[in-house]
Amino acid sequence: MESNKNFVVGVFDDEDVLLSAVEGTREKGIKIHEVYSPFPVHGLDEALGYKRSRLPIAAFMFGLTGTSLALLMQIWMLGFDWPMIIGGKNHASLPPFIPVTFEMTVLLAAHGMVLTFLIVSNLKPYKWPRQFDLRSTDDKHVMAVDLATNKLSKEEISRILKDNGASEVNEKNF
Amino acid sequence: MIAEEKYIFKPETKRNIFILGVVGVLLFALGVFLAMRSEGHKEEGHEKHASTEITKQLTASVTPVAEGEHEGGHEAKAEHHEGGSPVWLKRIFTSLWQNNIFFTGIGIIGLFFIAVQYAAQAGWSAPIKRIPLAIGHWIPIAGVLTIVLWFVIKGDVFHWTHSYLYAADGDKALKGKSGFFFWPLAAGSFPLFFIVRMVVFFGLWYLFFTWIKKEMLAEDIDGGVQHWFTARKFSAIFLVIFAVSSSVSAWDWVMSIDTHWFSTMFGWYVFASWWVTGLAVITLIVVNLKDAGYLKEFNANHLHDLGKFVFAFSIFWTYIWFSQFLLIYYANIPEETVYFISRLKNSPYSWIFYANLILNFVLPFLLLMTRDAKRHLSMLKVVCPIIVIGHWFDFYNMITPGVMKHDGGVGFLEIGLALIFAAVFLYVVLNALSKIQLVAKNHPFMEESLHHHI
């Protein structure tokens, strides 16, 4: 991806400090690139002002696709392409199609949702995730601020992060 | 910790419930009048053997076309033997029994819900557990009603109670099943085993209800965790008992109406219907209380959980419905398909058969699917009544076709009785609710529930 990106990285020891720091930094008009934490922090999404993910809508669409595909497939196979009499029922009778339809709905919804999630989260196979600070996988919370999207200078941002309780502030270039 | 809260059963609410009951009585009276009138026409037609053209037309208009009448030799013979009460009275009996079973289910689900919360050590439900507790107060009334009603209606609703079926030239299939009803007495005499089951089930349910209620209320005064642990112990034992008793009561009170038919899914089916109705009623009462300014601790997160319960068990009910339907449909064995044929091919029941699926699956599934829908009072206020009405029709279609055959219908009579039952049920539940603390005072999980966040 793009190189020479400059980030200011704040490291926090405690999730409560992190939460208030997120609010404090945003109040100062700083756009936060992302926050990394070793465990889910309740209320972090709200503090960061994230909108709800639209993934459920994608899942519904994938599910609907699965339902339609399954019904089309079965009706075409058993109703038109190779009509067979099974148990004296009509060629294309709905009740026996329901289990397959259900399974196809679940299959497409689940796989579609996982794939969509991986793609929108930049977790593609050829893509290496950026590590702002490796300790975010252990015991530290890490807040990354992209300098390119902020008007304030590096020094000012560092000071604001420090004021809001960051135990250390580093720079990171990619 | 949290402020004491008590539900006040206001005179206006009482008046509204009273009006509901009066409307029910009026509709019921009108329904009985209409049913008796059409009955008169029909008998006239039968007696005069269509001597005049007018009588013929009249008879044709009120007698549904008799198709698929012959379900088997013994069935025809039985009808000839029985005679029984006039159609309008049979209709009242059937409707009474249906409403009774429906509301019994809601009452017992009140206790079941609490027991599940204890067994699962659930924290989120702490502020609303008093509502299912109040619903559980219907259990003793349901017990008395069921036992008394059964003796009144047995001859008309329960085909298997007739002693001639067990004579030497009687019904072979029923003779095989007779032990299930009459043991240890002789087949065709007093159904001791059946009645003992009925009494024991209601006795046990009521016993566990009083025990768990005692612990819940004592907790308000004493505090500590001991009452919670004792209640959990009772809940776990009750759940085991309910697993058996809910299934067997479904066979006894509902499935044995279609005496020759059986389904291994039926216990689950009735339970699923009761459970989702109970959840919808709990949610509906909670939502209305919240709207009236009660339950300050109850927020969108708790509502979300209730919404998920209603949503998930609507699908669960559909799953059970379909599991029962598909196997019978596919196997196509006459003894089994007769149950669905009699519901699909007869005019009063076929639209209910499809409406059942739309009201209880399609609508809740689509309306409650999104997260926002489950978190808003207004959506649950729409969906919960749909589910309650839908499952009332579900029980209608389980019970009525087996008794009324071609003479059934949904008219003022049925709706009136349902409203009467609903009014009495609401009065009992809200009255019970006004006598206890609306929110548990020393519940060990209250603090957890206040911070519930999903």
Give the tags:
heterodimer; A: 174 residues; alpha+beta; 4 strands; elongated; B: 454 residues; mainly alpha
How would you sum up this structure, described in words?
The complex is a heterodimer of chains A (174) and B (454). Chain A is α+β, with helices and mostly antiparallel strands and 174 residues long. Chain A has two domains: 6-52 and 130-173, no CATH class; 55-120, no CATH class. Helices cover 47% and strands 13% of the residues of chain A. Chain A is built from five helices and four strands; from the N terminus they run βαβαααβαβ. Chain A has helices at residues 15-27, 44-48, 55-81, 94-120, 154-163; strands spanning 6-12, 34-36, 141-146, 168-173. In chain A, strands 2-3-1-4 form a four-stranded antiparallel sheet. Chain A is elongated, with a radius of gyration of 25 Å. The model of chain A has no long low-confidence stretch (mean pLDDT 89). Chain B is mainly α. Chain B is globular and about 70 Å long. Chain B contains 17 helices and no strands. Residues 45-81 of chain B have low confidence and may be disordered. Chain B has one domain. Chain B has helices at residues 11-48, 53-62, 73-82, 87-119, 130-135, 138-157, 172-182, 192-222, 226-253, 266-291, 300-331, 334-344, 347-367, 371-374, 377-404, 412-435, 446-450. Classes of the chains: A alpha+beta (174), B mainly alpha (454).
Q: Low-confidence parts of chain B, pLDDT < 50 over ≥5 residues?
A: 45-81
Low-pLDDT runs of chain A: none
What is the percent of helical residues of chain A?
A: 40-55%
Strand order of the largest sheet of chain A: 2-3-1-4
Pair of chains with the largest interface and how many residues each contributes: A-B, 12 and 11 residues
Helix and strand arrangement:
The complex is a heterodimer of chains A (174) and B (454).
Chain A: E1 6-12, H1 15-27, E2 34-36, H2 44-48, H3 55-81, H4 94-120, E3 141-146, H5 154-163, E4 168-173
Antiparallel strand pairs in A: 1-3, 1-4, 2-3
Chain B: H1 11-48, H2 53-62, H3 73-82, H4 87-119, H5 130-135, H6 138-157, H7 172-182, H8 192-222, H9 226-253, H10 266-291, H11 300-331, H12 334-344, H13 347-367, H14 371-374, H15 377-404, H16 412-435, H17 446-450
Helix pairs in contact in B: 1-2, 1-4, 1-16, 4-6, 4-9, 4-10, 4-15, 4-16, 6-8, 7-8, 8-9, 9-10, 10-11, 10-15, 11-13, 11-15, 13-15
